[in-house]
User: Fold this.
Amino acid sequence: MARVIVFDVNETLLDLGALDPEFARIFGDAAARQAWFQQVLQSAFVSTITGAYADFGAIGMGALDMLAARRGISLADDDREAVRVGMRTLPSHPDAREALMRLRESGLRLATLTNSTAQVGEAQITNAGLRDLFEQTLSADTVRRLKPAPEPYRMAAEKMGVPIGDMRLVAAHAWDIAGALRAGCTAAFVGRPGQVLDPLVERPDIVGADLREVADQIVMAETGQRAT
Assistant:
């Protein structure tokens, strides 16, 4: 039984689509935001695999420079600042608060676990109006290893005071689900648009189209309570 439920933040709880207008302004193409975030993830994985740590904010700005270079665009300092501020002030997905309240009211303990620094992660959850629902906001930066390396998941279980097998990670990314499962957690996948599970990774026991579906399944699995 996983009485502690830990949430990924970017894309799982918060809507990165809110950055699209800035990317449309800077690059003339709102879809550039998706290309940027894919580069962020690629650079984060390289950092983790090679053991040359960089924090997620620095990786994000580096990825922005790479995207600009690829597209032959010269970035202004104001452009970088707009993306940096935008990441701290992302809105939550419409289903987030209701789903989180359902879990809390069922007696489950909630926390976040993000690759962003602790300061940014705290600002994101506070600005999105969700901070009151979480016991802790945790950051992979604490252990200087980014998800999906095992250290962040182990740190989260330790901070929450439970064995790692008693913690469930909720995420909208196949790579995060893989990292959690292989670190010893259970997991739940949120099928946000465009997100799919990796067929080469064991399937989590909970999969839903949105956070409401996932929350109902978690409550049933962990407490035996059915959705009302």
